[in-house]
Each structure stands twice: as structure tokens, then as C-alpha cells.
Amino acid sequence: MKVRMVVVGIPGVGKTTVVDRVHSLVAGSKLVTFGTVMLEEGIRLGWIKHRDELRSLPVEKQKQLQTIAGTAIANTEERVLIVDTHLFIRTKEGFWPGLPFEVVRALSPTHLVLIEARSREVLERRKKDSTRYRDVMSEDEVQDELDLARSFLTVSSTLTGAPMLIIRNETDRSEEVAERLAATISEVSR
User: Is 188 left (phi over 0), alpha (psi -120 to 50) or beta?
Assistant: First the structure.
């Protein structure tokens, strides 16, 4: 069976650390970072220069990039595909779905996985990450994003019929989380 696992989480939950490890544990898997595909197209079009400019683009341009990325990723032929993405993006115009209807349907995930962490842990991780330009937020605002992520996950699961899994990635536990996801992939891809 083909596996199309879409792994999501708000910035700072350790999602990318987990998916990178899952990719290394699952032989023959392909890992695609949705934002990287969007970034490459945005740079090619001359709209942006770096990843953190994506969320400052007008929503219409973000929609165009999402559609291009979703279509490209949907055409991937590997038996096991792991997609690293976000359920929503905070923009100047409000929260924008990272997996709008057209994109989530095109991706046709077999599984949706939400990586979470405690709001305090998320804030600490964001402060330590000097590679990104992060908005300054309170712990309550981070908790609101965590709650919103669950809502977006539920909608995506409903639209696709894909089961959803919610996993807490506590500090220094990302290896366990990755092993759990790798085991899930192995079980369903037999």
C-alpha cells in the first residue's frame, strides 16, 4: 500500500526534527517539505528571497504557490511519501489554511499527523532558533495556535477521510516520536 503521510504542527513543536528522523528510519521513503516547494517557486517568480517572506505575501499569491506545490507533490510516485507542512500560516490578513481544500484533496493523504508540544516548550524552542524570523508571541497566543491546529487537522481529516494522529513531542523525546511514526508507516505499508 502507498503511504502519503502529511505531518503538521505549529512552528517550534519540533516537527521538522521528527520528520527528518522518520525519513532516515523508513527505507525508500521520500520526504518533501511543502514550504520548500513553495519557496522555490516564489523565488523563481521573483516574489520573495527567503522562506519567512512567504507568509507576508498577499493571500492570492500564497494560494497560487500552494496550488503549484500541491500539484507537484501529488505527482510523486514513491511508495512512502512524508510531507512536512503547516496547517495554517499567520498572515497580515489573518490565519490562512496551509492545506486548503484543493491542496489537501490533491495530496490525498493516507494519514494526517499533528505534532504538538506544550506552549512553554514551543516558546523556548522558537527563542533558540536563530535561523528563522519569528513573531514575538505570548504563551497564551501559542496555546491558541495549538488549539487552532487541532481544529484545522479535524477539517483536513474530514475532507480527505484520512485518519488523524496527534502526538506530543516533549523536550528530548523526538527520537521516540519518530520511532512511533516510522512503526506506523511500516505497519500500514506492508
Answer: alpha
pTM: 0.89
Residues in the chain, overall count: 190
> Cα–Cα distance between 170 and 22 in angstroms, integer?
16
pLDDT tens-digit profile, the chain (190 residues):
899 999 999 999 999 999 999 999 999 999 999 999 999 999 999 999 988 788 788 888 988 999 899 988 988 889 999 999 999 988 777 888 989 998 998 899 999 999 999 999 999 998 887 666 667 788 999 999 999 999 999 999 999 999 999 999 998 899 999 999 999 999 888 7
* Contact between residue 108 and residue 101 where contact means Cβ atoms under 8 Å apart: no
Domains and CATH numbers, the chain: 3-183 (3.40.50.300)
